[in-house]
Amino acid sequence: MAYFWVTKDTLISWQRILPQSTVETTQDKASYKVSFVINTSGEMQQVNIVNTSDGNKIPEDELNGVGEYQFYPTAQNISRQAVMINTIITL
Question: Which of 13, 38, 39, 42 is the most buried (most CB within 10 A)?
Answer without folding.
Answer: 38
